[in-house]
Design brief:
Elements: H1 2-16, E1 19-25, E2 30-32, E3 38-39, H2 43-50, E4 64-66, E5 75-82, E6 93-98, H3 103-117, E7 123-127, H4 131-135, E8 137-138, E9 141-142, H5 160-182, E10 190-196, H6 199-206, H7 211-234, E11 239-246, H8 248-273, H9 279-287, H10 289-293, H11 319-345, H12 354-359, H13 362-366
Parallel strand pairs: 3-6, 5-10, 5-11, 7-10
Antiparallel strand pairs: 1-6, 1-11, 2-4, 8-9
Helix pairs in contact: 2-3, 5-7, 6-7, 8-9
Length: about 375
């Protein structure tokens, strides 16, 4: 009996903590505190709130507080490191991450929200797994990895896994050198998204406690530190830089089912009601993962029932205009009334004032 309980405990721990969410840098206007685990489906809400936009899913996570809403970050840099449970970063604030959706789904929903609000935002997603051939001419400009090879002590460039890791680090350094010249800070929120996938195979090949794995972690963290410093210099510190990891085996089993169901649920509800889904969509989607995985090849958009979603009230397009008119007219009217009352109360009731003329008994004698 004790063995069963112990196995169940380890299984639940593996499900609830399959990755890490590390805040490498945050501006002074945002405070990250506590150690509460966070779900990956809430990362897009965290990034949306950090940029000053209204969140859609009403999830609960008390790890972030906005201190100064008037000096929010001008950019968000997300770094997805796939295939490892933790980045073992010596810097930043770390939280356990529950990987309940794929990295690409998080990116698509986040970038879609920014496109709906303003099409002048910079939205960059680079998967370094594609290599320099695919990323040679990116939106950041032409990337030219340095000819200087890293001189690893434990990693062997002749091994394919080690070689790909060293190539990703070279690409990160090339991006770091391109950031100051290719990016100009403005008042438009920007999102930069980088996907790294070469660290996991190295850890699997050499073992988590090997000297090669420790060197791989060190090289990766040093490259991410240089990248973070480059973005901090461009945006003068007003940038949120986060890295999150996920267990590759977990993601491969759930990405196709959960991500597709989540996207179908959002798109179908938006087409019917014109509004976004709330957190209940996540619950109904995950509840139907096993049922929908059998017929995922011929999946059709699934329309949720009205009692399964929490749709907000639909307002007319002129509602913001009328709201502002009534709001500021009311504010001006109240302060004007207060000023008039104060002026009349302080008025000297002399013979030249209307108060004297309407209240004096001399007026009756003159008549």
């Amino acid at each position: 009996m004790f063995a069963k309980i112990l196995c169940l405990t380890f299984a639940l721990a593996a499900v609830q903590a399959s990755g890490d969410f590390t805040v490498l840098h945050g501006p002074d206007s945002i405070n990250f505190h506590g150690e509460e685990p966070v779900s990956q489906s809430l990362l897009k809400e965290i990034f949306t709130a950090a940029l000053g936009y209204t969140v859609k899913l009403r999830g609960t996570w008390s790890g972030m507080s906005i201190i100064d809403p008037f000096h929010l970050p001008e950019a968000v840099v997300g770094i997805a490191v796939e295939g490892v449970n933790s980045l073992e970063s010596p810097r930043g604030k770390r939280y356990p991450l529950n990987v309940d959706e794929g990295e690409e789904t998080t990116w698509q929903i986040l970038s879609g929200r920014l496109e709906k609000r303003d099409n002048m935002n910079i939205e960059v997603r680079l998967s370094l797994e594609d290599g320099v051939n695919a990323l040679g001419h990116s939106i950041l400009g032409e990337l030219k990895p340095s000819a200087e090879q890293h001189s690893p002590k434990s990693l062997n460039p002749k091994n394919e896994a080690d070689r790909k890791l060293l190539e990703e680090i070279q690409l990160l350094d090339a991006i770091t050198k391109k950031v100051p010249s290719a990016i100009t800070a403005d008042d438009k929120p920007d999102v930069y998204w980088f996907v790294l996938s070469a660290l996991g195979p190295v850890i699997d090949l050499h073992g988590a406690d090997s000297a090669a794995a420790k060197e791989a972690y060190t090289l990766m963290n040093d490259a991410l530190a240089r990248l973070s410093n480059a973005f901090m210099d461009v945006y003068s510190g007003k940038v949120l830089i986060c890295a999150f990891t996920n267990d590759g085996t977990y993601v491969r089993h759930t990405r196709d089912v959960v991500a597709e169901n989540r996207a179908d649920a959002e798109n179908s509800a938006d087409a019917v009601t014109g509004q976004s889904l709330r957190s209940t969509v996540d619950e109904t989607t995950e509840a139907n993962v096993n049922q929908n995985s059998t017929d995922s090849s011929d999946k059709k958009p699934r329309v949720l029932k009205s009692d399964q979603i929490n749709i907000s009230k639909v307002y007319d397009a002129t509602y913001p205009v009328m709201f502002n008119i009534f709001l500021w007219f009311g504010v001006a009217f109240v302060f004007s009334l207060i000023a008039i009352c104060i002026t009349i109360a302080d008025m000297d009731p002399g013979r030249d004032s209307i108060i004297y003329r309407m209240t004096s008994n001399r007026m009756k004698k003159d008549n």
